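Many introductory courses stop at the sequence. We go one step further.
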Amino acid sequence: MGTRGARLAGKTAIVTGAGSGIGRASACLFAQQGCRVAVVDWNEEGGRETERLIREDGGEGSFIQADVSDAVAVEAMVAKTMARYGRLDALYNNASIVRGYGGPVEAEEDDWDATMAVNVKGAYLCAKYAIPAMIESGGGSVINQSSVAAIQGGGPPLSGPCAAYTTSKAAVIGLTRSIAYSYGHRGIRANSILPGLTDTAMVASLLDDADFRRAMIDSTPLRRIGTPEEVAWVAVFLASDESSFVSGAEIVVDGACWLSQGVTYPEPLLFEDPAAAGS
């Protein structure tokens, strides 16, 4: 999943939604880089499996079951992490859901509320309780998972409108900026990661469709689908001291797909001939 190193040696991180996908890849990679990881997920089976993978690989991690939309559970999650490891240096707000497609007219109110509860309220609650612990530890990094949907206006790339998800991920960017602005003087950094369509269970039904997968690849300048590990490496950078002056930023990780706005490029590409490029 990654190369063992010490980029996060001595640090402790909370990774939410760590029971699968990008969250699992990040929790495992954090541990491989020397971090002690609180593996947080509402799904015990998935969380325990991530914990097992970390320990099997020689890392240090422990599962904490929590629903990030529940303030009591989130406060307890941070307290357990501090009691177990004595400090907190990074929070990766990765937990999120996609519920319901369509624009605002088609969106069901229940889907809207459920999406906001996890994607926005969850990130807010985790920050609310984790930031004081990070300040107590001497400062730290908040990493919030947004999405290219926040800047495209649709749902996951090429999947069509998804008003609740899109709005929630745009709100995460606003929350990130507020954190960076409000607590920078206390040693807190905050940044957003905006993944494109990444090969995870959340979008498996989309990527299992051969035509959709082909369209995604054709409309991505790098001509492939991203992996959870590629997003995880960005999170490692943001959690590390290497990014010590990076705060309030949005980092897109999508192979430049969002720049194409879903347009399938012709084959061969225009200006593929070097001579034509100069004319």
